[in-house]
Amino acid sequence: MHLFIMRHGEAELMANSDKARHLNANGREQSRLQGMWLKSTALEFDKVLVSPYTRALETFDEINQVFEQQLSDKLEVWEGITPYGDSGLVSSYVALLEKEGHRNLLLISHLPLVGDIVKELCGRNPASFYPATIVEVHLNNHRAEVKEIKYFSKTN
């Protein structure tokens, strides 16, 4: 399985609640550009797991626009991947999805959970999860390894 773990794009600092924080203009651009990179991998996602927080949903929306709305029917909004979700539970769910035959999965979440998920799966987290960072993890028979770390950059 190819698992792409993404932190949402850059968000506004102030809002009525953490859950309600929107992406700022830079965060929208980051998400769109990372969506272009994801699309260039030529993988078709079987499922996209997204936190219910506004900035994660808006990150998904930007990526889905790049994919010409083809990800809409793959979307699963899950309370389990909010900032302080349980990485063990996420890891178990990913393993279940792999067992069910899902081959390509995108997960959009938050710090600190994104780093915790990589550490849970791979035994270490080599990434600094700046906004819109994507870590590609390959899972194969309960073995996981980081294949690529894609930091946001306007030049690549």
Automatic annotation (TrEMBL):
Keyword Hydrolase listed: yes
Gene of this entry: sixA
Pfam families: His_Phos_1
Top-level EC class: hydrolase
One Gene Ontology CC term in the entry: cytoplasm
GO molecular function: protein histidine phosphatase activity
Coiled-coil blocks: none
InterPro entries per the UniProt record, alphabetical: His_Pase_superF_clade-1, His_PPase_superfam, Mito_Ser/Thr_phosphatase, SixA
Keywords annotated in UniProt: Hydrolase
EC number: 3.1.3.-
Keyword Hydrolase: yes
Entries under PANTHER family matching the protein: PHOSPHOGLYCERATE MUTASE-RELATED
Name assigned to this protein: Phosphohistidine phosphatase SixA
